[in-house]
Task: inverse folding
């Protein structure tokens, strides 16, 4: 094995959820707001994809290229082939998103990112139609398939919150929590999630307590008179933390800590040294953690964390990270 | 002046089993313009005028050309790779590749193949790809790198399992694919003990793990599309099995795939009629465009190539534990399988293809999937009645009598996977569904009792192409361990022969052209050296095939072994 610097891994995100929950809207939103990130998206078909005409660059039967550098490919029955096409692109993408079909289990797809050293798993998002969830789950033909999907989620997206009353939403979230245990859950309308969730390098953003990446669209209710995106204050959705732990960790110990990550931590990634592998890449999303030998030698140890924002979470996040990553005497 | 009619050839045969119940048997058949001019005795046929008497079939028995209603052209496209299955299998050159009954036999075969590759000057790193390996027959013994490295440590070896969900590779391939002890996914199986503890065994399960290998060798065969060589190989296999018409029951109908079909079938030596079925298990918005595409393609139909079928798919496979089963579920307690298409989307897409006038074949394996299809089709037909649609459930392996009665009332046809009775009958009895349901697996008798038009199939390359073998399965319902699965569901020899000729033709809407030997139909014959009625049910599979006649052109089978 040479020590030559090999390219960093490409983060892969899998978007699951039953038919009609809003997977495609979510993906379309990301594509349109990519802001310099080159995202490759694999979808089941182009039918529902509604991309602004001015963003369209070229289109053939299986691929749509956007003027912002993103591409969207139709899976066409063979995910392996579609993914190979994207991976073999001479100009590597910054992120890859795969839309799982409405009845499939997203987890087997997500495992590709754990297995392939050129990829890293950015997480499994499962989109839920908060209004229709009860009816979907009540269908005896579908119940087990939908439960498999939900159980694979690193992040639940409670979508279409604008279509249900607060009570319904509360019941739905309660049911999800009761049934699935502590999995992070964000609310959304029209599948609009901040692009922050996709970004592979949060340091590209100014490190503040507000990484809110809300981008206004025609669906927002606030005043667009200034025709500017900055005017609106939707409040911070996420907070982040970056630190450089100098310790050398044991992978078993670290894995155990990552398994006990508080629910409001949505994602954690970075490079630390471990006794087993030397420089190691660590990844955590929702319910999946991985630690593996780094493919390149980082300049320094670094752990980036993003978590949901609430009145107490900022301090709680720091406290938790302190207990895991601060200097310590490592017992063998 | 009237043009001179084309010459008439009259074939004489030991017997002609016409499958026309109004004239079940004859000694002579007259052929003109590639079609059947008449059937009867010589004196009768001579009334048509001048003829040439062809006696080469005088000792043979003629059947209508056999029809495989559910197979895939890939049957001919597998042979760039090495066959490592449990059962003997005939290759396109008429040689029988012996089945391998122990892990040691598999290793020895691989050593021979590697040596052959070396001698033929193949690059030392050219991958050795194999297919058809099925550990279900090996009990608890698993294949590992320790087996495969004995064949080669320098040449990548990839063995795809028969079920499509697993593969085994050697250490060399593991190294190329960067599969090592660091990879933490369930699908990369690792040694649990011994000196290699924690290192991959070389067994890769499910898409993620297999993807690592396909990335490197996918182009070399496992993911490669159908080409003309593969099609010609398919035609050779069909010819050896007496098949003159076959489906390709999942085809993208892309320009590239259609070009291969059209180019290969324009050649005389590609002696088979093909009905490709459009792959209609797509995203949620593909149906309108798909239906339009298939309708457009039918304008390119020829005598030998018929577009117009649509293939949909609801669930997985029974032996892979991925079919959708009703209560009481899997016999061994495994969880219920998967939907390939959500029932609601199936119904919506089905309606679009149905309203477009197309002919839909639906893959359903488990009984819950079959029932979901029947329910959906009943609602669609209530909204949009259409005479003589002949929509067909394919496999439908667990359909019971009440479902068959509903299918009959809806005008549905069935094509049952009779080869399963032999190939996985014991596994179904012992593991997947237990005795009761295994005894009505592929319930041919119940289908006929309910008056559901019946075909039977091989799903080649899942099992080998060979309708006479399939007929034997349906007529005997015997397993390798000697069980008879549901004696009362057996077909008579004539019923079984009907299911691989006129019965299959009906499910393809081709019964007016092929499927029986009677005037006006295409001169497609299966030429047998043995009389199936003399052989009887027990020996039906042993009937020797001389070759075929396709549109009046004679094609002796390449059965000489080297």
Result:
């Amino acid at each position: 094995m040479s020590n030559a610097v090999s390219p960093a891994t490409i983060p892969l995100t899998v978007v699951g959820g039953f038919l009609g929950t809003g997977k495609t809207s979510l993906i379309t939103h990301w594509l349109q707001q990519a802001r310099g990130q080159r995202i490759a998206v694999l979808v089941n078909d182009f039918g529902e994809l509604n991309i602004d005409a001015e963003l369209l660059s070229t289109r053939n039967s299986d691929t749509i290229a956007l003027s912002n550098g993103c591409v969207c490919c139709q899976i066409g029955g063979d995910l392996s082939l579609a993914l190979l096409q994207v991976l073999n692109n001479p100009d590597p993408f910054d992120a890859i998103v795969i839309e799982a079909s409405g009845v499939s289990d997203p987890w087997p797809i997500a495992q590709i990112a754990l297995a392939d050293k050129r990829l890293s798993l950015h997480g499994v998002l499962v989109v839920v139609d908060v209004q229709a969830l009860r009816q979907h789950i009540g269908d005896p033909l579908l119940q087990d398939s939908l439960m498999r999907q939900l159980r694979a989620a690193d992040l639940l997206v409670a979508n279409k919150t604008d279509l249900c009353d607060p009570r319904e939403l509360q019941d739905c979230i309660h049911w999800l929590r009761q049934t699935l245990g502590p999995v992070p859950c964000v609310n959304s309308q029209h599948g609009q999630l901040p692009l922050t969730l996709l970004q592979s390098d949060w340091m590209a953003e100014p490190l503040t307590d507000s990484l809110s990446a809300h981008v206004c669209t025609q669906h927002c209710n606030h005043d667009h008179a200034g025709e500017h995106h900055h005017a609106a204050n939707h409040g911070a959705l996420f907070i982040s933390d970056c630190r450089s732990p100098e310790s050398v960790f044991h992978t078993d110990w670290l894995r155990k800590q990552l398994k006990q990550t508080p629910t409001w931590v949505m994602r954690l990634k970075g490079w630390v040294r471990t006794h087993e592998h030397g420089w190691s890449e660590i990844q955590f999303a929702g319910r999946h953690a991985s630690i593996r030998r780094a493919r390149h030698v980082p300049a320094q140890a670094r752990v980036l964390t993003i978590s949901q924002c609430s009145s107490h979470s900022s301090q709680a996040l720091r406290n938790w990270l302190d207990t895991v990553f601060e200097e310590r005497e490592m017992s063998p | 002046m009237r043009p001179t009619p084309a010459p008439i050839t009259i074939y004489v045969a030991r017997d002609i089993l016409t499958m026309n119940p109004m004239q079940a048997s004859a000694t002579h058949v007259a052929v003109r313009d590639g079609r059947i001019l008449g059937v009867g005795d010589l004196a009768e046929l001579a009334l048509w005028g001048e003829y040439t008497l062809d006696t080469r079939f005088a000792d043979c028995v003629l059947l209508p050309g056999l029809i495989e209603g559910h197979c895939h052209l890939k049957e001919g496209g597998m042979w760039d790779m090495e066959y490592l299955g449990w059962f003997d299998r005939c290759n396109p050159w008429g040689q029988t590749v012996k089945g391998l009954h122990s892990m040691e036999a598999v290793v020895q075969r691989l050593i021979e193949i590697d040596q052959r590759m070396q001698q033929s000057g193949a690059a030392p790193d050219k991958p050795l790809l194999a297919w058809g390996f099925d550990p279900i027959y090996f009990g608890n013994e698993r294949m590992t790198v320790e087996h495969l490295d004995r064949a080669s440590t320098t040449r990548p070896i990839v063995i795809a399992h028969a079920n499509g969900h697993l593969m085994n590779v050697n250490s060399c391939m593991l190294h190329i694919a960067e599969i090592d002890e660091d990879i933490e996914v369930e699908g990369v199986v690792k040694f649990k003990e011994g000196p290699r503890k924690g290192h991959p065994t070389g067994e890769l399960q499910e898409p993620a793990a297999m993807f690592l290998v396909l990335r490197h060798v996918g182009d070399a065969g496992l993911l490669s599309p159908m080409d003309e060589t593969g099609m010609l190989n398919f035609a050779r296999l069909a010819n050896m099995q007496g098949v003159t018409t076959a489906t390709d029951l999942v085809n993208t109908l892309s320009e590239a795939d259609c070009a291969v079909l059209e180019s290969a079938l324009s050649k005389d030596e590609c002696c088979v009629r093909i009905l490709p079925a459009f792959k209609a298990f797509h995203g949620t918005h593909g149906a309108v465009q798909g239906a339009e595409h298939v309708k457009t393609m039918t304008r390119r139909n020829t005598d030998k190539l018929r577009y117009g079928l649509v293939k949909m798919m609801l669930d997985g496979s029974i032996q892979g534990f991925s079919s959708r089963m009703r209560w009481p579920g899997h016999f061994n307690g495994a969880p219920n399988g998967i939907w390939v298409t959500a029932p609601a989307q199936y119904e919506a897409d089905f309606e679009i293809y149905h309203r477009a006038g197309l002919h839909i074949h639906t893959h359903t394996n488990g009984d819950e999937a079959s029932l979901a299809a029947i329910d959906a089709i009943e609602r669609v037909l209530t909204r949009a009645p259409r005479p003589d649609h002949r929509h067909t459930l394919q496999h439908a392996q667990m359909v019971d009598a009440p479902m068959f009665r509903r299918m009959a009332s809806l005008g549905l046809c069935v094509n049952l996977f009779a080869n399963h009775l032999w190939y996985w009958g014991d596994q179904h009895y012992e593991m997947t569904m237990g005795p009761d349901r295994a005894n009505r697996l592929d319930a041919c008798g119940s289908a006929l009792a309910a008056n559901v038009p019946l075909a039977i199939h091989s799903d080649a390359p899942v099992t080998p192409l060979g309708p006479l073998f399939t007929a034997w399965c349906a007529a005997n319902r015997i397993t390798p361990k000697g069980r008879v699965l549901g004696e009362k569901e057996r077909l008579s020899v004539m019923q079984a022969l009907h299911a691989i000729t006129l019965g299959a033709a009906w499910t393809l809407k081709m019964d007016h052209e092929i499927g029986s030997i009677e005037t006006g139909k295409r001169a497609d014959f299966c030429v047998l050296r043995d009389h199936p009625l003399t052989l009887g049910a027990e020996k039906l599979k042993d009937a020797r095939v001389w070759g075929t006649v396709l549109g009046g052109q004679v094609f002796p089978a390449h059965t000489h072994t080297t």
